[in-house]
Amino acid sequence: MVLAGGTGGAKLARGMLDVVGPDSLTVIANTGDDIEIYGAYVSPDPDLVTFWLADRIHDRGWGLAGDTFQVMDGLKAIDVEVWFNLGDQDLAIGLERARRLQQGARPTEAHATIAKALNVQATILPMADEPVRTKVLADDRWWPFQEYMIKAGGASATSHRVQDVEFHGARNARPTPEVLNAIATARAIVIGPSNPVISIAPILAVNGMRAALHETSAPVVAVSPLVKGEVVKGPTAAFMDFTGLPVSNDGIAAYYDGLTDGLVADQRTAGLPTLETDVLMATPEDRRRVAEETLKFALALG
Ligand code: GDP
């Protein structure tokens, strides 16, 4: 089982798919970044994981390869402010998700239908069916997550100071029966190399998630999102700074203290048993190797 936000977790999940096959892989994905826009219900992290597992992720790191943007162009042509870009096929997915939710489907069911339509056989589970929304306090203002990333420049500004983070609704959200079953029956649980503070923390904030992870007999290991001490992509450093922990593998180990049995990183850490290996996943071979070594390490700890 892999816990994932977007890119980092999705790349590891793609490697894990090669190692264990679709029937043995479950991904629990963050839904704190979800957004309702253009009449669609967009679930960026579960969708990103799905696009990766379908081998349809666009090279730029989001959206579908080969997608077009005619609806966005059409909206701009009638003076709609398009600050959140969605490809046409991506928008179709969000519209269909909204329709199914309106008909009473749970987000878990709606996502399963979408994954199946994209020929993904592995199981991708939203962390909860109740809405959880990540909010970021920056410039003395609370931003919904996507607005923080895009409008407030959170995605690019490494020096952008994060004052606080909140997972609105997490206390009233529960891991779904599917998530609880996946945790209870997993042979190994891997926290993917996603941003710990905004991609993994919302999953852990769901009421009952940490307890379920503590109760399971499966080993829990994390893969570090740092490569040679640096963040590969996104605002992980700004969010680690907010926690007061260093942007280092020691900081990552401290962040997951009490939850994980080990860390996979390219440097030894003080706090946790570490598997020292190159964790850059630029190619399919890298992704498979990191997944395979991580799984072996986890099973040896279990
Ligand atoms: P996103 O920003 O919403 O797409 O999602 P994530 O939080 O899942 O991904 C961001 C994190 O992934 C950053 O901290 C990156 O350093 C990490 N990351 C991206 N690519 C790699 C990789 O190849 N290896 C490792 N270890 N981490 C990666």
What's the topology here?
Blueprint: E1 2-4, H1 7-20, E2 26-29, E3 35-37, E4 40-42, H2 44-53, H3 70-77, H4 88-102, H5 107-117, E5 123-126, E6 133-138, E7 141-144, H6 145-150, E8 164-168, H7 177-185, E9 189-191, H8 196-205, H9 209-215, E10 220-223, E11 226-227, E12 230-231, H10 236-243, H11 249-255, E13 262-265, E14 274-276, H12 284-301
Parallel strand pairs: 1-2, 1-9, 2-5, 9-10, 10-13, 13-14
Antiparallel strand pairs: 3-4, 6-7, 6-8, 11-12
H-E order: EHEEEHHHHEEEHEHEHHEEEHHEEH
CATH class of the largest domain: Alpha Beta
Biggest sheet: strands, sense, closure? Answer: 7 strands, parallel
The count of DSSP E runs of length 2 or more, i.e. the number of strands, is: 14
Mean pLDDT across all amino acids: 96
CATH superfamily of the largest domain: CofD-like domains
The neighbouring-strand order within the major sheet is 5-2-1-9-10-13-14
Which structural class fits the helix and strand makeup?
Answer: alpha/beta
Fraction of residues in β-strands: 15-25%
Helix content: 40-55%
Level-2 CATH architecture of the largest domain? 3-Layer(aba) Sandwich
Bound molecules: guanosine-5'-diphosphate
- Amino- and carboxy-terminal Cα gap: 14 Å
Indicate the low-confidence ranges by residue numbers: none
Radius of gyration: 18 Å
CATH topology of the largest domain: Rossmann fold
Our count of domains comes out at: 2
**Helical region count?**
12
Q: What is the molecular shape?
A: globular
Oligomeric nature of the chains: single chain
